[in-house]
Structures are given as structure tokens and as C-alpha cells.
Design goal:
By secondary structure, this protein is mainly beta. It has helices at 77-80, 92-100, 182-186, 191-199, and strands at residues 5-13, 16-25, 29-37, 43-52, 59-67, 71-76, 86-88, 106-112, 122-135, 141-151, 154-162, 165-171, 174-179. Strands 6-5-4-3-2-1-13-12-11-10-9-8-7 form a 13-stranded mixed beta sheet, sandwiched between helices. The longest helix has 9 residues, at 92-100. The protein is globular and about 45 Å long. It starts with a strand and ends with a helix.
Length: 203
């Protein structure tokens, strides 16, 4: 049985705090919501729901939605011909969290682009790197272990772990920093973004 948890991150673009990230896992379902405003004030919101198979050895299905644009996808692994060694991109966080708390040096899998499930899954690797200084938004600097994710031969994400937990994430030119809870993550965020992060899409 997997332990349940809830985690909040602040979300930064080009050095400016723009939004937040919410993740929750109940032992079988991983929910990931990202919401932010770009430099023009236009809001962006995405929600991914990844359901694990019984026993948790692989995933069973996922649903993904993104606005603006009305993008929505839903996939069942067994019906789509995807193998047990595949992993939706947002589900990667579960692997990273387990990896960070272990002594493993590398993990391999096939990474599924949730927004484009018809594309072939990309061969991916999660590798443990060096320990290096990480500057946090509150002015502190800590030493954290670097975990790099490559997919299709390109680095697609980097995570930094400290005391077995992820403290910073870098992906697609953005940064996310772990927060103690929702109050800190949502401070200064537009109320409509906060409502989405708590409740997800309606309808």
C-alpha cells in the first residue's frame, strides 16, 4: 500500500513568481495541477490524473486537460497498446520521489507525452547526479542532490532532492520550489488560480 500525501510548490517563470503547483496522491491516484499567469496576465491551467494499476507496479489510465486551448486527452494503457514500462510525464514525480529516497543510480522507462498520446513514448532515463548548492526563494541556500531526466536524448527536467524530498524542479524554462503548504504556495496568487489548484476543472 502506498502512503498518501499532498504537496505544494511555488511556480516561477524567468525569475518571477507566476503561480503554483499542486500534487496529491491517495495511494492509487496522482493528481497534478499547474496554474500560472504569463507576463501579459493570461492564465494557464493544466490538470493530470494518473491512475495506477492494482498493486502500483504500473499505471492503468490517465486524463489530461489544459486551458486555454481546450486540450483534453484520456488514455487507458491496456487499450492503447502501451507497455508496463511506460509512464505518463506527470507520473514521473512518483518515480522521482521514490528514487530520491533510495540509493539507486539510474532508472529507465518510456515517457508518454500526456498532451500528445499518439506520439511514440520516448526512451527516458532518470540519473542521480552530484550534490550542489541550491538557492531558495526565502534566501536560504542548501545542498541538494541533482536528479536529471532525459527523454529522446534531451534533458526534459531536473529535480533537486534534500533529505529525501524534492525541493526544486526545473522544466521547460520554469522553476518550482517546494512550499510547506497551500498558504505559502498560494500567497499573492490570483484567487481564480487558487480555486483551480484546490478544485480542478469544473464540468
Amino acid at each position: 500500500m502506498h502512503a498518501a500525501w499532498e504537496r505544494w510548490d511555488s511556480f516561477w517563470v524567468a525569475g518571477v513568481r507566476r503561480g503554483a503547483v499542486f500534487r496529491a496522491f491517495d495511494g492509487g491516484l496522482l493528481t497534478t495541477r499547474i496554474a500560472f499567469q504569463d507576463a501579459t496576465g493570461t492564465p494557464f491551467a493544466s490538470e493530470s490524473l494518473v491512475r495506477l494499476a492494482e498493486g502500483g507496479e504500473t499505471w492503468r489510465a490517465y486524463r489530461y486537460r489544459q486551458e486555454p486551448g481546450g486540450l483534453g486527452e484520456g488514455v487507458r494503457r491496456d487499450e492503447s497498446g502501451l507497455g508496463v514500462d511506460t509512464l505518463p510525464a506527470s507520473g514521473e514525480y512518483l518515480l522521482v520521489a521514490q528514487f530520491a529516497a533510495s540509493s539507486r543510480g539510474m532508472a529507465t522507462y518510456l515517457r508518454v507525452d500526456e498532451a500528445c498520446p499518439e506520439a511514440a513514448p520516448a526512451p527516458a532515463q532518470l540519473r542521480r547526479g552530484r550534490t550542489e548548492p541550491v538557492d531558495l526563494p526565502d534566501g536560504r541556500s542548501i545542498r541538494a542532490e541533482r536528479l536529471d531526466v532525459t527523454a529522446g536524448g534531451m534533458r526534459v527536467a531536473t529535480y533537486w532532492a534534500h533529505d529525501g524530498g524534492v525541493v526544486r524542479t526545473a522544466s521547460a524554462g520554469t522553476l518550482a520550489f517546494a512550499c510547506p503548504g497551500d498558504r505559502e504556495a498560494l500567497a499573492g496568487i490570483a484567487p481564480r488560480l487558487g480555486a483551480f489548484l484546490r478544485e480542478g476543472f469544473r464540468g
